[in-house]
UniProtKB/TrEMBL annotation:
Coiled-coil spans in chain: none
Domain of life: Bacteria
Organism: Methylorubrum extorquens DSM 13060
Region (Disordered): 1-80, 422-444
Gene3D superfamilies (alphabetical): 2-enoyl-CoA Hydratase, Chain A, domain 1 (3.90.226.10)
Protein name: 3-hydroxyisobutyryl-CoA hydrolase
Sequence ranges assigned to domain Enoyl-CoA hydratase/isomerase in this UniProt record: 93-417
The keyword Secreted is assigned to this record: no
EC number, as in UniProt: 3.1.2.4
Pfam family, one: ECH_2
């Protein structure tokens, strides 16, 4: 059943979810939330101090993005505070991620709640557009709970691991196929799962502190949440650069390549929301607002070099071209090559294969490819070793298997894209939390 045909549910919400009825309208019945595994957030302590220390240690920008995007806090009891809040304001369905201390990291209950609410709003004639934002100012959403996923996998709970990824990918597909305008107001960090719930929408508004990255190759994973579809469609070979390096970019570069569609000051986000709530053309919500400075960075300044180096057919050749450019005096090429050499050789090879295939895949096909990859990667060594090295022990010395690009089995990479045994989930917007139990039973 697609979104437009789904009626509003009236089950009891999860404790971590808060629903607010429409302003000046009868209270809406909340959608149902089924409990999933409880998760902790990402990062604790003084983020600015950690970033400063990382710079002092000589950590590359990509490595900083990696630690900021996926480093986790210790697992704790779930908070009584809501993780996500839904509100109807005029014609706008407003979603607010409310885990600012965790940089608004996604948990499975949040993912399922958001999916159910989107279904409800799709069938609600009072709601003509969706707006999603993060709270706290530092992050829109920095991803998912990698530490908890690692713990589940190490405990042999593979079905629970895949339940999270399946739910997250279903939500990404729901955003991509949503029948009403979907607007993401992005303040601060947007990485991993945060990219999945923003990039596939219609409007992506970057605030002055916007910071995008897909740093998964640094923890033995691969760019997911629809990156297989989206990144190959960026200009030139910029998508390959982002996929392999995990580099962080700001609003200027994001606007230049289409990751963001608009720029606005964070202080104007509330004004934009109120204008959207009033109905009318989406574009009018930005009328008369001063846009922040959107200075571009390396993605624009080094575009020629990026296209020259990342158009290579193999990661080994990408590195060879970067090394040659570094010998000719390019500091950017040298730093980029050094960053790539810290990444998992297997993840790098998978990521380049994703970029090569993705341009010819539909969104649903790309998401299914990622789900297949995820099923295989989650049974291997590198993800758990990457999380250990970057997040748990923080020694930044992962022992990748294999340790070199030359030792990566090309046949195994090819096989990882192949069909799974038994029925596979669909990522065309037709499935979601309601189908989770049946899908899980089909996989066992």
């Amino acid at each position: 059943m697609r979104f437009g045909a789904v009626a509003r549910s009236a089950l009891t919400p999860h404790p971590g979810v808060r629903l607010r009825g429409p302003r000046n309208a009868p209270d809406a019945k909340p959608p149902g939330i089924e409990p999933g595994f409880e998760t902790a957030g990402i990062r604790s302590g003084d983020d600015a101090a950690k970033e400063s220390a990382a710079v002092e240690r000589g950590m590359s920008g990509g490595q900083q993005a990696l630690q900021q995007g996926v480093a986790q806090r210790d697992v704790r009891e779930p908070s009584a505070e809501p993780e996500i809040v839904f509100e109807t304001r005029g014609e706008a369905g407003l979603i607010t991620l409310t885990r600012p201390k965790a940089l608004n990291a996604l948990t499975l209950p949040m993912v399922e709640a958001m999916h159910r609410q989107l279904r409800a709003w799709a069938g609600d004639a009072r709601v003509s557009r969706i707006v999603v934002r993060g709270s706290g100012g530092r992050a829109f959403c920095a991803g998912g709970d990698i530490r908890q996923i690692q713990a589940l996998g190490k405990a042999g709970r593979h079905a629970d691991v895949m339940a999270f990824w399946r739910g997250e990918y279903w939500l990404d597909a729901a955003v991509k196929s949503y029948p009403k305008p979907y607007i993401a107001l992005i303040e601060g960090i947007v990485m991993g799962g945060g990219v999945g719930i923003s990039l596939h929408g219609d409007v992506r508004v970057a605030a002055e502190n916007y910071s995008f990255a897909m740093p998964e190759t640094g923890i033995g994973f691969f760019p997911d949440v629809g990156a297989t579809y989206a990144l190959p469609r960026l200009p030139g070979y910029t998508g390959r650069y982002l996929a392999l390096t995990g580099a962080r970019i700001g609003a200027g570069d994001a606007l230049a390549v289409g990751l963001a569609t608009h720029a606005a000051r964070a202080e104007d986000f509330e004004t934009i929301i109120e204008r959207l709530a009033g109905g009318g053309a989406i574009a009018r919500a930005f009328d008369g607002l001063d846009a922040p400075g959107t200075e571009t960075g390396p993605l624009v300044a080094e575009r020629t070099l990026i296209d020259t180096c990342f158009s290579a057919d193999t990661v080994t050749e990408v590195l060879a071209r970067l090394d040659a450019a570094a010998r000719d005096g390019s500091a950017f090429a040298g730093a980029t090559a050094a960053t790539i050499r810290t990444r998992s050789p297997t993840s790098l090879t998978i990521a380049l294969a994703q970029m090569r295939r993705g341009a010819d895949l539909s969104f649903a096909e790309a998401m299914l490819a990622e789900y297949r990859l995820c099923e295989r990667v989650m049974r291997g060594h590198n993800f758990y070793e990457g999380v250990r090295a970057v997040i748990i022990d923080k020694d930044n010395r992962p022992a990748w298997q294999p340790a070199t690009l030359d030792a990566v089995d090309a046949g195994a990479i090819e096989a990882a894209f192949g069909p799974l045994d038994g029925p596979e989930p669909l990522f065309d917007g037709s499935q979601g939390p309601h189908e989770a139990s049946a899908a899980a039973e089909a996989r066992t």
